[in-house]
Amino acid sequence: MTLSLRRPLSAVTALLALLATAALTLGLTATFTTLAAAPASAHDRLLSSDPADGAQLATPPGAITLTFNTEPLPVEPQVVVSDSAGTVVTQGAPTIDGSTATLALDPAVALGGDTYTVAWRVVSSDGHPIEGTFAFTVAAQPEAPVSEEPTTDEATPEETASEDAPADAAEDTTSESATPAATDAEDGGSSIVPVLVGLGALVVAAAVVVVVVLRRRGATGDDTPHDPED
């Protein structure tokens, strides 16, 4: 009887030990799995965007705004907007303000009549980079009207007469100012004539004096007696 009771007890003990070992193994596995998944679940995530994913807009947006669950780090954030053909329309570094990243769009960039994809990338608050994409559509925009240059009105006869009057007045002023100058030139020329006549008379008188002196010297030389020995 004693032997028959010990065998069932030994079997139960072995079964309990096996169950305890299995439970311990499962517990350790769950613990390691939780610890390994904790860093991944701590990454920031995008809560919303403006424009929203799949939005249908009547007019182009003025900015791309991303809102996260925590504050991303301002480390080389990037936003790229591409059209349906994959051509980059605009891109830049958004401004980080708290949990919001905003990229202002240049008004000169014409958006309309197409679907645009926004690809974003920021650095999570735990230092890991995160990224994602979303799309929105902008309706076709009307073309801006071409402004016509105003035509120049033809000048009226009164305006033509008023424009010609200053020209005539200028010509009269020029002729009047030229007349005194010509008169002064004539007066200057007439005043020089007596001076020239006086200078000519002086030159003639000097020439006469020189001739007379030379003749007298010649006559004196002829009257001098010669030496007989010569």
Automatic annotation (TrEMBL):
GO biological process terms on file: copper ion transport; response to copper ion
UniProt xrefs under SUPFAM superfamilies: E set domains
Keyword Membrane: yes
Domain of life: Bacteria
Name recorded for this polypeptide: Copper resistance protein CopC
Keyword Signal among record annotations: yes
Keywords: Copper, Membrane, Metal-binding, Signal, Transmembrane, Transmembrane helix
GO molecular function: copper ion binding
Major subcellular location class: other
Biased composition (Acidic residues): 150-174
Organism: Cellulosimicrobium protaetiae
GO (cellular component) term, any one: plasma membrane
Stretches that traverse the bilayer: 192-214
CopC domain ranges (all copies): 43-138
Sequence segments annotated as region (Disordered): 142-189
A Pfam family this chain is assigned to: CopC
Lineage of the organism: Bacteria, Bacillati, Actinomycetota, Actinomycetes, Micrococcales
Localization annotation: Cell envelope
